[in-house]
Design brief:
This protein is of the alpha+beta class. 37% of the residues lie in helices and 19% in strands. The chain has 2 domains: 147 residues, no CATH class; 105 residues, 3-Layer(aba) Sandwich (Endonuclease, Chain A).
């Protein structure tokens, strides 16, 4: 006898459990809290923190995906009742979602899962232990090439289709952060994104997708860098990612963004920031070194980038004006 969830990433439905157990035995496991219940009628072993694939499997099973047949052709969706999509698929693919948990803005989209379904189903909302979670069921038109089967028996939208669906759901900043990170890590290619924009020209989210792809830059090494670029490039268009500062012998610093003519550097700290005495001291030493070479560096925190955008722009413009006067550069 196969163990429950053996072929589905250690997640199983009530119907699957009843194939090997009686209703009373299932009730006993739940009463004893030997099982957790991510969604009504979907179970996993207690005490397990579900990874993105397990969460996606649970969402699919909760949406009628238990025992669904394989598609009739490779990549097709014929016969599939539920497919992980949107943010849920993005997590499976390892895409960056800055609004899943953002302490600066209070965004908690990690509590949201999305599944594409064949027939209309109501969304689910559960609040175990007071923590509300939502499962959104969406009717999507999916074709051959839009669906992949990944380990764990999970049907999930392809990387490019997932990006297309996210374009209709995420904020501009979150979407560009996702694209920057995916390009930087080689999860998608610029050519594939360009073809996606052409193919989705008349679809929901087409404008957001086109603008985000145009704004994406594979050189960004963190979402903080992406947010800084999106905020400052419209007012300081000469800023370039990953600028190296040299002395007579070597590279002494690599700046998140820099204007080499003005010798203006911009550094963006991530959510955690450069905390700790050693990191702060290292940053100060580097800033003193670049300052001796005529550079001015402005630093912004994650909170600045998410909640104090006007202040960031004001400070950056003032720094640029100061450097322009210092080096005698025209406007």
């Amino acid at each position: 006898m196969r163990a429950l969830g053996e072929s589905t990433s250690r997640i199983w439905s009530r119907s699957q459990a009843l194939q090997v157990m009686t209703p009373a035995q299932v009730a006993t496991q739940l009463r004893r809290r030997a099982w957790q219940q991510p969604w009504p009628g979907v179970y996993a072993d207690a005490g397990v923190d579900l990874d993105p694939t397990q969460r996606a499997v649970a969402a699919v099973l909760a949406s009628g995906g238990a025992g669904q047949p394989a598609p009739l052709r490779p990549g097709g969706r014929a016969g599939l009742r539920a497919i992980a999509c949107g943010r849920t698929a993005a997590r499976v693919h390892g895409f960056l979602l800055i609004d899943d948990d953002d302490p600066a803005t209070g965004a908690r989209e990690a509590s949201l899962d999305e599944v594409a379904v064949r027939t209309s189903r109501r969304d689910l909302v559960v609040a175990p232990d007071g923590a509300t979670r939502s499962l959104c069921r969406r009717r999507l038109l999916l074709g051959a090439g839009d669906v992949r089967l990944v380990p764990g028996g999970l049907h999930v939208t392809s990387r490019l289709r997932t990006i297309a669906d996210c374009a209709a759901a995420l904020s501009r900043e979150a979407l560009v952060c996702l694209l920057d990170d995916a390009l930087h890590r080689g999860l998608v290619r610029r050519e594939g994104l360009a073809e996606l924009v052409r193919a989705r020209a008349w679809c929901v989210g087409a404008v957001a997708l086109r603008e985000a792809v145009a704004a994406a830059d594979a050189r960004a090494e963190s979402p903080a860098e992406t947010l800084t670029r999106l905020l400052l490039l419209p007012v300081l268009p000469a800023l370039v990612p990953q600028v190296r500062v040299h002395d007579d012998r070597r590279v002494v610093a690599r700046l998140d963004l820099g204007d080499e003519e003005l010798r203006l550097g911009i550094e963006a700290d991530g959510r955690v920031g450069h905390a700790g005495e050693q990191m702060v001291a290292k940053d100060r030493r580097r800033d003193r070194t670049t300052e001796r070479l005529g550079w001015r560096t402005e630093r912004f925190t994650w909170f600045d980038l998410r909640r104090r955008q006007d202040e960031v722009v004001t400070v950056a413009l003032a720094a640029a004006a100061s450097q322009r006067a210092r080096v005698g550069s025209p406007e």
